[in-house]
Amino acid sequence: MVKGANVGLATLSEDVGSVVVSLGWSSATGEGDADVSVLLLDGDGKVRSDVDFCFYNNPVAGNGSVQLLGKTPTADGSEDRISFDLDAVPQEIDKVVVAASRYAGSRFGELDDLRLTLADSAGDGLVRFAVEGADEVSAVIFGELYRRSGEWKFRAVGQGYASGLAGLATDYGVDIDDDAAEEPPGLEAEAEPGPEADAPAPEPPAATGPDAPEPPPVVPAQSRGVRATTPAAPQASAAPRAPAAPGPADSAPVPKPTRRPRTAKKKVTLPRTAKKSLADNESWRSARLFPVSALKSDRERETRATSVVLSVMAQVPEFGRRLTAGFGAPAGRMETYTEVTLPHGESPRRPDGVVRVERAGKLWTALVETKTNGNALKPDQVQAYMDIAARRGYEAVITLSNDVALEGSPLVDVRIDRRRKHKVALWHLSWAEVVHQAQMLIRHEGVGNAAHAWLLQELLLYLQHENSGCHGFQNMGAAWVPVRRGIDDETLCQGDARALEVIENWERLVRQVCLRLGGELGQKVLPVQRARRGSDPGARRAELADHLCEQGRLNAEIRIEGTPGVLAITADLRTAKLRTSIEVPAAEPGYPLSRVKRLIRRLSEAPADLHIETIADGQGPGPRGTLERLRPEPADLLPKDGAQITGFRLSLFKGMGNGRGSAETGFIRSVDEAVDRFHAQVVAHVEAPAV
Description:
The protein is an alpha+beta fold. The chain has twelve helices and 26 strands.
C-alpha cells in the first residue's frame, strides 16, 4: 500500500475477525529499537480514558480485544506484533491507531526498512505498508483500523511526530501526569558530590484505609523519553544543595518536568524472595498442586503436561490469551479439553488437547499436539490433525514441544489443500516460550488476582522440574559431535549439510537463551540478525555454515533492553572456549584517564579475570588487560599515540562443554552459565542509567 490508501479487510480475506499487525524495522548496528503503542478512539477522535492507551506498561486494552504480543526476531531485524480481535472491540470505538515511538533522543531516521504488515487469523499476509520520510521524528503513526458501515478498514498513514510519544498521546486525549517526580533540567549540577548523591528519593507516603487507591505498578528503570510513573508527592532532596549565587536567576520560574502518561491499574505479582519456610528441616517438600513424582514414561509426561497447561490457560485469562492471541484466537470465554476422540477414516484420532474460545456466539477451535523430552513431532500425525481440522471447520492446529521453530525452517512439513475454502493454520509453541510467558506475568506484568498468580507459580514450578520433560531445547543434534571432530582434524568442508544442522540448532539455542533471560529480567531480549535486507533465512544460515567450516566458530549477538551495547557470544570449537563480550561507548566527558578510571570504578564488583580492551578511533585492537592488573594501573589502557578513545570491549572467557545435550558437562549448559555470569557480573554494572 501507499501512504493515504485504504482497503476493506473483508475484501482481502474471510478470516479477519482477528488480525495480527506487525511493525518492523532493522538497523545496521543491531541496537535500534522502538516501542509500539495503540490508541482506541471514540467518535470524537479521543480515548475514552487512559485505559484505551495500550503501550509497554499497559499491554492489554479494549476488554482484551487489543494485546501487545512482544517482539519476534526476523532475518534482518525484529517485528513487534499486536493482536486485534476486531469482533470484540467495544462498539464505542470507531478507530484504532497503531503507532511506535523511540526514546532517549533517538529518531526513526536511524532505523531502516520501517514497515507495517497485517495478517489474518490463519497467518496469511494481507497488507504491507513501507513508511518513508520519518527521518527526524521520534514517533510515527503507521496506520489505523476504522469502522465503515459495520465493516473494518485499514488506512496507511505514515505520519510523524517530532514531539514523541507524549505529543502523540496528548493529541488523542490521553491524560498526562504533570506532577511527575523528576528534577527540572539543569538542577542536577547544583548537587554537591557526596555519598548520598546517588541515593533514591524517599517514596511518597501511602494512603491508608478501605478507600485508598491501589498503588500503580513499579516500572523498571529504562531509557525511555516517555514512560509511566507513580503519582508524584513532595519529595526531599537526595543530596544537600549548594547555595545559589544571588541574581536575577533566583526569580526565574522553574521549568515544568516532562509530562508522561499515567500507569494502568496495578496487578498482582509474586515477590521474588519466598517467605521463610515453616518446615522442620530441608528434607520436607512443599505440597504441590501439580506433582511430578509419579511420572514414569514419556506418555505420562505428555498427558500430564498437556492437562496442566491447558487447565491453567482456561483458569487464568491473561495467560490463555497471551498464548493464543498470536494464533488468531478471539478474546472470549476459553474452555480446554484433553484426550478428545475425533473420527478420521477407519481409525479415530485422539489429539492431546483441544482449545475452544467462544465470542458472541462464534467458536474458535484449535487442536493441540504435545511432545515432551526429546521426542520429535511426527509429520503423519500432524497431517492427520490438519485434515481433521479442515473437515470440521476448526481454525488451527498447535504443536507444543521442546523444539524451537525458526523462520523459514518449519518443524513439520504438511500438505495443505488449497482447494478447500476453509483455511487451517499450523502454529508451534516451545515449552521455553510457555515458561517465558508465565514468568513475565507473575514476576513483572501481573495478573488479575492472587489466586491466578499462585496458579501460574505452580505451573512454573511444574514445568521447571527435572521430571516434567518440559525443559525447552536441550540437544544440539546428531551432527554436533561429527562437526566438532571435523573442525579438530580440519576435514569439514564447506557445503556440508551437518554444518547447516549445527547452525540451525545454534540459532534455536540462542533464541531460547533470550526467552529465559527476558523472563528473568522482565525486559525485551532478542537475538540480533545481521544480514542483507531482503535476504532469505536459508541463504543466511548457509553462509554462516560456511563460516563455521572455515573458522570453527559459532557467533551470536543478543540485544538486552536498557544495556549500552550488544552482548556477543562466540563459541570457538577449536579451542573449546566460550567468549561473552560487550562494547561500551566512552561518551562521558573528561580526560582519557578519567574515563578509564570511571570505568574501573563501575566494575568494582566484576570478576578479576574480566578482559578490558580499549577501542580507539581509526585503529585496530587497542591496549588490553585483565581487570586485576588494570585496577592499580588504569593508565595501561590509554593508547600510546594519544588516539581518541571511542569505547571499551569487556570480555569473559569460559570453558565450553563437550556434550551435545544440557547435562552438567554439555554445551547447552555451558552457554547458559556463561551468559548468566556475564550479565550478572558485568553487564549489570555498566547498564546505561535511566534518563
